[in-house]
Amino acid sequence: MGRIALGVLLMSEVVAQGREEVREVARPGQGGIVSLHREVVSRVQLWGLVLLTFASFFPGLFHYEEYVFFVLFTVAVGASWLDGRTVWVRTPLDLPFFLLVAWILVTIPFATDPAYSFAEWRKLVTQMLVFYWALLVVRRYGDGATRRQILAAVVIGTVTLSLYALVDFVQRDGSLVNRSVRAWAPSSDSNWLTTYLVIGIPLVVCAGVAIKTNWRRLAYFGAVLGPALLTQVFSYMRAGWLALVFQGIALALFTGRRRLILWVLGCCLAGVLSLLALSQVGYQKDTVHPLSLNIRLGVWRLAIGEVVTHPLVGIGYGNDTFVKRFKDYVETDPNPEFHISEYGPHNTFLMLAMGSGIPALIFMVWMLVSAVRTILRGAGRVASEWSYAFLIAIAVMIVGFAVRNCFDYMFAGSLAYLFWILVATGLAESMKKSESLAA
Length: 439
Known about the structure:
Blueprint: H1 2-17, H2 31-55, H3 62-83, H4 94-107, H5 114-141, H6 146-171, H7 190-209, H8 214-235, H9 238-255, H10 259-280, H11 285-288, H12 291-309, H13 320-325, H14 348-356, H15 358-381, H16 385-404, H17 413-430
Helix pairs in contact: 1-3, 1-5, 2-3, 2-5, 2-6, 2-17, 4-5, 4-15, 5-17, 6-7, 6-8, 7-8, 7-9, 7-16, 9-10, 9-16, 12-14, 14-15, 15-16, 15-17, 16-17
């Protein structure tokens, strides 16, 4: 489906550049029909974008989300063709994004399993289409209310997910004693849950900036941010907390509040010391146990060895390539039944370098850095405090998502859809020519 959609996109570009705008040749009285067509398309695209943003918080809906996206994408391409307009919105991410996709395609013939790597590559192409479609929708059809609607979808999705996870955690007899029972996201696990929170929490905080009354802001944070942080606690995912720590540091650097770094590091140190103290009296002993760290170090050594051996084209794109390559290895776990085949490389960036070579890693990092730099430049131009907070939140979200992906492969499925929709929204706002975004 990704190849078909990409073909439609490229074909529409060629046709749109070589034809006249047929809407202007309409018979008298047709203008009302054209205006109605544009209004309907605009509303369908905008509300479709908001719907997909919310639906992305629920992985069980992902296949339906894919179907809805391709319908909306086809409508956007068709509407642009009828209007004689391009569907491509240029961004600073274009070059690294296209180089990444092209390079991975070039390396597929060298893959351990070319058919699997090609299937994973198509998923990446679909993610690219989601990004450019969301960018097109926000730039062409969006207005001052668009980012508020998307932000509302993220806030509602975050609080809904948090409340579900907390109730489920209690029903499964979760406790503060150990992490044998963890809070889960519906149709997924604690890894996905904590990643959703890493994406959602900066935007939840951003939404609170728009609340001017102190007591209402306090009530909002208690009702939304409170459950999100509590869910992060009960997910028992240390990588999630580490991502939040880096988000706090990024916020301090992006806003020039260097003293905030000391507060973040101080809270981090207090939390670690408290956890160590609790482990000495019988609480959360497995949380401080180095088992999962040892597992990661073991698989990282194997993956780095493959990068050194195949630095240019790798051994095959996709998280399961590691499993195919090392299915018979036993590593690090004292349990003799543990096999490496149950795990991937536990690192998106290492997976990319191992699978498609160091050039692919360079293109990915280049793309993420370009996104953050472009959004921060846009934040420096806006006059609205709320718009500034929104763009800073998107930049902070990107940092946290990148850190989270250093410990697990989370650049997949509905998580990737949500990430690219938010990045596209932030880029669309930051690239506006006007220095003042509507509050």
